[in-house]
């Protein structure tokens, strides 16, 4: 492995005969020294398969790649998305993290949109509406869905429902049991050109009957107007916010309705706190840097093909879905920024689910499968419910799994042998609050960006998703029998479907 990651191969080679339990036995202080905290967020990397010398090599990589400078450039609104000539100023949506003019302008626009959003929420609160239907997909859905699910409290003023899939069953199910007269809907689409959202938005518009309770969030005011939603019920989006980084903008309108505007702002404060930490903490004390270096170590030095994310908190059950877009749409690239071919493996497959459920589904493969799957375990210290024994059991399971995966257990019977040596990181929140969740999500955002810097790729475009959309559009007439497909296999399949 050459280039920016030079030196890591040699470290991996040196450590190849030293499994995790030996690394930990040789250096018990790593349990303390490979851990760091920022506010309510604690991270422990002691069960990763590196030692102090390998970490030195990783931090050398971070220095050489100028991760600190890269963070500054992101926050200052540099063109970090050169294929589309755009900045990625999601940090400006949540705080004053830069003095750069472009970032300050973005911040002013964000505050203006927040004030308008608050006004719309107050109007809705004063009326009869009880339910909100949010229509969007990808970045216009996954973030709001995650945060609303994680943080909505019993007895909330509005119940928020989501429709994303173009499958009409999604709309049918979401609208079943709702009263159109007491429902408002938000059509969220950065481009307002997304097939799924326009079709589902059309279903909801017709279902509402009266479109005075129809709202939009988009960069494209003209398309919104053509759809029939007036400017006073349209909140803005901007090119300087990527879809998968947009929950902090008016795309978070459903979040603010689900959890209240004040708590939405606390979510933003938490994310802004992580922005400041990622930008200002020295590399060795920097959670985002540790997380990104660990990801690169597991991918490029240990050659892990997949990465699991395992929240041990029912409220975070949608985090893996959210992170799949954030991480894989950002880092699923094979071209360098300059247009060459990346000489290294980039993103592994991210997947996961909430513990303890997943212990009874795919954990068998984590413990005894032939592949090593690095995992991020995420726990929450405070229960927020009265079932103390359940919470103790949850935390015991969380600790047990990280320990069992690392240490394994020998046996004469190969079927009952646990190889161990399976790396994991533990992320622990003091409590699940808007602030801590904002910090956690922003940590992943910045880790993703820093990984892209280490790999020399663009984390902010997503041309890979376009081809399938184009082919789908070209095949639509064929489904009505109005045209024929060129591809012989598709032709045969169409014959089956018609
Ligand atoms: O907000 P829009 O423009 O409807 O796009 C939705 C999603 O579609 C994508 O462009 C591709 O799936 C995502 O990046 C984006 O979050």
TrEMBL record:
GO terms for molecular function: carbohydrate derivative binding; glucose-6-phosphate isomerase activity; monosaccharide binding. Pathway: Carbohydrate biosynthesis; gluconeogenesis; Carbohydrate degradation; glycolysis; D-glyceraldehyde 3-phosphate and glycerone phosphate from D-glucose: step 2/4. It is found in: Cytoplasm. Keywords: Cytoplasm, Gluconeogenesis, Glycolysis, Isomerase. The active site is at residues 329, 360, 469. One of its GO terms (biological process) is glycolytic process. InterPro entries: G6P_Isomerase, G6P_Isomerase_C, Phosphoglucose_isomerase_CS, SIS_dom_sf, SIS_PGI_1, SIS_PGI_2. Its EC number is 5.3.1.9. The keyword Cytoplasm applies. Its main location: cytoplasm. It comes from the Bacteria. It catalyses: alpha-D-glucose 6-phosphate = beta-D-fructose 6-phosphate. GO terms for cellular component: cytosol. It holds the Pfam family PGI. Catalyzes the reversible isomerization of glucose-6-phosphate to fructose-6-phosphate. Belongs to the GPI family. This is Glucose-6-phosphate isomerase. It comes from Thermomonas brevis. The lineage of its organism: Bacteria, Pseudomonadati, Pseudomonadota, Gammaproteobacteria, Lysobacterales. The gene is pgi.
């Amino acid at each position: 492995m050459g280039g920016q990651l030079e030196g890591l191969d040699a470290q991996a080679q040196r450590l190849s005969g030293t499994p995790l339990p030996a690394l930990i036995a040789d250096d018990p202080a790593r349990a303390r020294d490979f851990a760091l905290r920022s506010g309510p967020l604690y991270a422990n990397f002691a069960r990763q398969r590196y030692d102090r010398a390998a970490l030195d090599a990783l931090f050398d990589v971070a220095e050489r790649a100028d991760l600190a400078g890269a963070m500054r450039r992101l926050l200052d609104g540099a063109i970090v998305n050169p294929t589309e000539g755009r900045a990625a100023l999601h940090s400006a949506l949540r705080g004053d993290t830069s003095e750069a003019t472009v970032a300050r302008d973005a911040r002013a626009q964000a505050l203006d949109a927040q004030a308008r959003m608050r006004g719309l929420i107050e109007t809705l609160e004063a009326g009869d509406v009880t339910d909100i239907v949010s229509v969007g997909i990808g970045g216009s859905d996954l973030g709001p869905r995650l945060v609303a699910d994680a943080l909505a409290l019993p007895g909330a003023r509005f119940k928020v429902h989501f429709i994303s899939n173009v499958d009409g069953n999604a709309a049918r199910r979401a609208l079943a049991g709702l009263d159109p007269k007491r429902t408002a809907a938000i059509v969220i689409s950065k481009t307002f050109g997304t097939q799924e959202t326009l079709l589902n938005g059309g279903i909801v518009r017709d279902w509402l009957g009266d479109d005075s309770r129809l709202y939009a969030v988009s960069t494209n005011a003209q398309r919104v107007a053509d759809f029939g939603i007036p400017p006073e019920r349209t909140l803005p989006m901007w090119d300087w916010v990527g879809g998968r980084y947009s929950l902090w903008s008016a795309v978070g309108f459903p979040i603010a309705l689900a959890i209240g505007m004040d708590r939405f702002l606390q979510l933003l404060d938490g994310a802004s706190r992580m922005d400041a930490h990622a930008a200002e903490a020295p590399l060795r004390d920097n959670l985002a840097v540790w997380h990104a270096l660990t990801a690169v170590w597991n991918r490029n030095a240990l050659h892990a093909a997949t990465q699991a994310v395992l929240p041990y908190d029912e409220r975070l059950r949608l985090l893996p879905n959210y992170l799949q877009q954030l991480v894989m749409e950002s880092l699923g690239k094979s071209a360098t920024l300059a247009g060459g071919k990346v000489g290294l493996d980039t993103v592994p497959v991210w997947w996961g689910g909430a513990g303890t459920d997943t212990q009874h589904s795919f954990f068998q493969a984590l413990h005894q499968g032939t592949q090593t799957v690095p995992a991020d375990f995420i726990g929450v210290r405070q229960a927020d419910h009265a079932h103390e024994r359940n919470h103790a059991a949850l935390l015991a399971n969380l600790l047990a799994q990280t320990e069992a995966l690392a240490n394994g257990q020998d046996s004469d019977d190969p079927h009952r042998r646990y190889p161990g040596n399976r790396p994991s990181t533990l992320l622990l929140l003091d409590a699940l609050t808007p602030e801590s969740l904002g910090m956690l999500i922003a940590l992943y955002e910045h880790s993703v960006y820093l990984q892209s810097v280490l790999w020399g790729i663009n984390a902010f475009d997503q041309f890979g998703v376009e081809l399938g959309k184009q082919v789908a559009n070209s095949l639509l007439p064929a489904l009505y029998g109005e045209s024929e497909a060129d591809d012989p296999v598709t032709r045969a399949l169409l014959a089956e479907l018609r």
